[in-house]
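Example 3.2
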Amino acid sequence: MSHFFALLSRMKYISRWALMRNTSQENLSEHSLETAMLAHGLAVIGNVYFHKQLDAQRACLLGLYHDATEIITGDMPTPVKYHSARMRDTYKDIEREAADTLLSLLPEEMRADYAWIFREEEQDAYLRRLVKAADKISAYLKCVEEEQAGNREFESARVSTLQSLRAMALPEADYFLDHFADSYGKNLDELTLTEQNTL
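Structure, written as tokens:
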């Protein structure tokens, strides 16, 4: 009997932004889905607009599982995780051990199909950069959502996350921010507005 998928299903019980006052709680499953969709989109943007040959499906899977180790480690707040180089390196070691633990829960015959997702491989270096950007975009959009709900708790997080995103100097992420991000500030009527219902 393997507990791998049953354990993954508990991602929905892990809340994000634990140190922040939220108007709408976000769990790890929701964040992982959004990150996967964004990572896929960034890879497609790279292919369509910057003439790259990126594996968008592979980027999507990397995004889907990018925080799966938090089932074991929990969601460590960013200010704590990156407090110092020592803290960051220690947490990286913990993440690697958690990834090995998750893989060990799979039947041995299936592990090779998942190992590349949990263990960083050189061929995926650029895709993992896109996943990191997608992760930050997801965080940025959460900040925008909270601010729109009147919660000023996320104001400085929005500014610093956007600065961090721009500093990554990824054309795919910049393109997304310039062409897609503003839509997240619109209400449902504005998002679904068509020429037909404006007459």
